[in-house]
Every structure is written in structure tokens, then in C-alpha cells.
Specification:
2,3-Dihydroxybiphenyl 1,2-Dioxygenase, domain 1; alpha/beta; about 20% helix; Signal recognition particle alu RNA binding heterodimer, srp9/1
Length: about 120
């Protein structure tokens, strides 16, 4: 099996669409309002912003976590946790072997937590 789609709760569809366009540096694939849906592509997995969906926690891979956090901070995004190491991957069970997993947390326009992830050698 492979993941096809993730639904994320939003209250204000336009506001959330602008936020995720900024975060993902991509425009939506499609908007259907009504009923209140916006779709983005996450490397072949659809992110669906939906009014009244339950909240999800998104973990998004970035190439440079420090640059991503600074770009978002300068755009006014609330950073809840600065980039920090959360785990060292000794083997490839949960990530590339021999890397450190860095994470930072931010709050999206709807109050949901979004985590950025970078794997660094080390």
C-alpha cells in the first residue's frame, strides 16, 4: 500500500490555501468551493484542506530546515519549536542510517501543528 491523501482541518479555506501555498512554495492543484476543498501535491500524495475535517499532524521533509524556518518566520508564521535534533538513525529502520533527524514545529493559519524534518549526516 501507499499513502494517497492526507486531509487537514481548516476553518478559513482561502486563508489556509494562502498559508500552504507559502509553506509548500506551490500553488494548489484544485479548489472546489463548495463543498470547501483545496488540494496540493506533496510529491505524489494529495494534501486536502477541508472544512470540518479532523486535525492531522503533518511532517514535511525539507532540504534546509534552518532556511525554511527563517523564510516562514519572515513571512509571519508562528514558529513553535526551533530546529533541533530529535533522533540519530544508527540503522535505516526509521530514516537514512548515519543521519541525525532535525525537526522544527510551526503553527499553520488554522492553528494546526506542522513539523519540518531534515536528515543531516552525523
Amino acid at each position: 500500500m501507499r499513502l494517497v491523501q492526507i486531509a487537514q482541518r481548516v476553518e478559513d479555506l482561502e486563508r489556509a490555501s494562502r498559508f500552504y501555498a507559502l509553506l509548500l512554495q506551490a500553488e494548489p492543484l484544485a479548489t472546489y468551493d463548495p463543498p470547501g476543498l483545496v488540494f496540493f501535491d506533496l510529491d505524489g500524495v494529495r494534501l486536502m484542506l477541508e472544512r470540518n475535517a479532523p486535525a492531522a499532524m503533518l511532517y514535511l521533509a525539507v532540504a534546509d530546515i534552518d532556511a525554511a524556518v527563517e523564510r516562514l518566520r519572515s513571512a509571519g508564521v508562528a514558529i513553535r519549536s526551533e530546529p533541533h535534533v530529535i533522533f540519530r538513525h544508527e540503522d535505516a529502520t526509521l530514516g537514512p542510517a548515519g543521519t541525525q533527524e532535525w525537526q522544527a514545529a510551526l503553527e499553520d493559519s488554522e492553528g494546526n501543528l506542522v513539523l519540518l524534518v531534515e536528515h543531516r549526516p552525523g
